[in-house]
Amino acid sequence: MGSMSELPSFSLPAGLPRLERCAVMGVVNVTPDSFSDGGLWHDPAKAIAHGLALRARGADLVDVGGESTRPGSQRVPEDEELRRVIPVVRELADAGVMVSVDTMRASVAERAVEAGAAVVNDVSGGLADPAMARVVAETGAPFVVMHWRGQSADMDKLAVYGDVVRDVVAELTDRVDALLAAGVKEDQLILDPGLGFAKTPEHNWALLGRLDELTALGRPVLVAASRKRFLGTLLADPATGELRPPRERDDATAAVSVLSARAGAWAVRVHDVSGTADAVRVVAAWQRAARPGHSCPTAGKDGGVREGL
Fold first, then answer.
1. Which residues are catalytic?
2. Alpha-carbon torsion 35, 41, 81, 105, what sign?
3. Degrees, nearest 5: CA angle 276-261-141
4. Nearest CA to 226 among 254, 192, 198?
């Protein structure tokens, strides 16, 4: 892991705020079956209110998804995903929230961008829908390319690697090359190692511990560890072996956020925004203080030092 004085060096996609700290992406699952908060925000009005609350608590972006990708989940019909997602994206964007749409479908991505979404976050990295590359290229939207080996119903069987970090870096590099060949511009791309997707707990920890090998690719990196099963395994009851429940993993998530920010992640994707929003500001202040000739950090209205868009 790099020195605390180091700051990430990469070019951000156009339209995303350049902050002198790790950005925070809040999660809004407009689903009945997501692993940690399924059903809480299934109603569009509740989802919109939650997205606004996440922004108020410090989220720089709000990620709206209408399809659960938990292990073993089945896909929802396209019209149902559109029905869940588009009204929420539109209302949040109209309220000035920077919205990311979490979808594997090109049609949903296209409609969401038309409704005001600023980012397309595809857990399949464009593999699930061959039309996704065209939509991203035509809209020019920043595109989160996650490492992915298959649908959620089957992904646990695909967690076989030689060296997981080298394999993930190689497979993401191949995906980037394919997207560039399809007309997507390199400066649109954000990388995500895909924690929990066809990964064992040991694989996830290896990817986090060697995150610098991913940031070395020169693109912004998104880390999405929030409340995931590998944290529940780490925090399991030593007497019974029972996993820590998802909603009791937020302190561990904030710790991962701190270490990811220190390692050069562009953003972290979390369910509980407040703790992580505070934590990444501490990391940024520490990093500034460690640089020669630093000045005392001045908080902007969002609690971070903004360099501009």
1. 228, 269
2. negative
3. 90
4. 254
3 state DSSP class of 119: strand
Please name the amino acid found at residue 290: A
Query: In the block, which residue shows the tokens 């700051």?
Result: 7
Task: Give the separation between CA 226 and CA 272, rounded to whole angstroms.
Answer: 8
Which amino acid belongs to residue 89? V
Residues paired with 223 in a beta bridge: 268
Tokens representing residue 5 in the block = 């004085």
**How far apart are the C-alpha atoms of 108 and 252, rounded to whole Å?**
32
Residue 288 to residue 293: CA distance in whole angstroms:
9
pLDDT, tens digit, 9 for 90 and up, residues 101-151: 999 999 999 999 999 999 999 999 999 999 999 999 999 999 999 999 988
Which tens digit of pLDDT belongs to each residue from 220-267?
Answer: 999 999 999 999 999 999 999 999 999 999 999 999 999 999 999 999
Is the separation of the CB atoms in 236 and 242 below 8 Å? yes
Backbone angles phi, psi at 306, to 5 degrees: -95, 130
What six digits make up the tokens of 173?
């590099």
Helix runs in 8-116, H state only: 44-56, 78-94, 106-115
